[in-house]
Amino acid sequence: MSDRLEKAVSETWIVIVAVGVMTIALKAVGPVLLGGKPLPQHLTGIVDLLAPALLAALVVTQVLGGDEEIVLDERLVGLGAAVVALLLRAPLLVVVIAAAASTAVVRLFT
Amino acid sequence: MSRARYRDGARKVAPIGVAALAFGASYGVLAQTSGFGSVEAIVMSATTFAGSAQFAAASILGAGGGVVSAIVAATLLNARYAPISVSMAPVFTGGLVRRLLESQLIVDESWAVSRRADGAFDRRLLVGAGLVLYPCWITGTAVGAIAGDALADPEDLGLDAAFPALFLALLVPQVRSRQALAAAVLGGVIALVLLPITPAGVPIVAAAAACLIGWRKP
């Protein structure tokens, strides 16, 4: 094994362990430290709004996200199809499939 | 009755399971080309279980960006799990080990489907959804890391558009009040503004701050 490869292997493991431990801790922090106890009353108003705020941010970053840039591409067509499906009150499965299928079709022809 | 909630969670997230499988495979391929062995790729999926952070860490290492950059990028991408985890804390009951293990099933998709129409989180929906996504992600990773480039690109199948569609579909029923609408719009705008100027992950965790408009004096 060359020195370079040996270095690469150990670097990989350092990253895997560090990122793994950090992620496990981030996911566990609430349930482990505060698990089962109701949140303080004055915080419930904040927590109730976390879902709409984060979901909207996830939609924006997943549709337009690039490498530190905004990218307009076929994903927008998929989101448009999802909007139409939602307006037609389609079930979740149909919404997701409509988005993927329309994106795939547009990619095929562009 | 309680079993039915686990099943509901599994069913709601099932279409995304397919996408998780495909993106797990594309992560496996990326990890392999970035110098990860298949065991390393699979161990990372089993322990980190957070797609975007894994993609970032592997691609930075593969491009020679170094250990510190890879860890920092992955940390920023996963920072949103702190508020998500705290917001879900009340529904995690049981012993410490059980809470620790079940909390590891938190990912964006399982968290999003675990919120009931009345606004409360449901641990069983989360666990049901997580138990679908986790094996899909690991199996996908294993297939990608071993089979490599022989696989179809999930983007050719439009699967990258499946995730925002899911989040949008789950967002709509959340917007039941003016305040929820304001939080969603503000969160979306913060993410959009920061997207071109900050490292990946920052727009999402910063958007979480939009929920502070719900602050009431104690």
Describe the structure.
The complex is a heterodimer of chains A (110) and B (218). Chain A is mainly α. Helix content of chain A is 79%, strand content 0%. Chain A has 4 helices and no strands. The longest helix of chain A has 32 residues, at 3-34. The N and C termini of chain A lie far apart (45 Å). In chain A, 45% of the residues are buried. Helices cover 67% and strands 0% of the residues of chain B. The mean pLDDT of chain B is 92. At the A-B interface, α1, α2, α3 and α4 of A face α1, α2, α3, α4 and α5 of B.
Give descriptors for this structure:
A: 110 residues; mainly alpha; 4 helices; 79% helix; 0% strand; B: 218 residues; globular
Mean of residue pLDDT values of chain B: 92
Rg of chain B, nearest Å: 18 Å
Number of helices of chain B: 11
Biggest chain contact: A-B, 80 and 104 residues
Query: What's the Cα radius of gyration of chain A?
Result: 21 Å
Structural class of the helix and strand makeup of chain A? mainly alpha
How many β-strand stretches of chain A?
0
Contiguous low-pLDDT stretches of chain A (5 residues minimum) are: none
> Kindly state the mean pLDDT of chain A as a whole number?
90
Helix share bin of chain B: 55-70%
> Roughly how much helix do the residues of chain A carry, as a percent range?
over 70%
What assembly state would you assign to the polypeptide chains in this entry?
A: heterodimer
The N- to C-terminal Cα distance of chain B equals 37 Å
Query: Can you summarize the main beta sheet of chain A?
Result: none
Q: Number of DSSP helices of chain A?
A: 4
Relative strand content of chain A: under 5%
Note poorly predicted spans of chain B: none
Largest sheet of chain B: none
What string gives the helices and strands of chain B in order?
HHHHHHHHHHH
Order of helices and strands of chain A: HHHH
Principal-axis shape of chain A equals flat
